[in-house]
Write a structure and sequence with these properties.
With 118 residues, this protein is an alpha+beta fold. The chain has two helices and five strands. A three-stranded antiparallel beta sheet has the order 3-4-5. A two-stranded antiparallel ribbon has the order 1-2. A hairpin with a 6-residue loop joins strand 1 and strand 2.
Amino acid sequence: MNPFKICSKCGYTWKVRDDFLGDLSICLVGFQASAKETECGYYLFNHILEGNQCNTTLAMEVEAFLSLHKGSMFTDIKFKSPMCELHCVRVEDLSQCPVECKNAIAREIMQAFSQCKI
């Protein structure tokens, strides 16, 4: 079985998603939203280790976390539509969005792990 994620800088390996999300050295710092319906967005996590042993940013496809969502799935992206609140133009904006948009689902999912644990 392939590991869930391997750190691109220090090589640390998380075998499964729950290990990654429960790791105190992982901190969500951003969301790169997709402006196209066919693409997934990316969550940006910092891998912070004592003594500056790593401190890199890991990009993870939203798709790897979609099973955490239990509600309705929206398939359209409403980015920059009249109803859009423009949360997605700011990578560091981790807030939820009330629009029925595929990116709003990604924002809802990240609420479960948006707090830095360090």
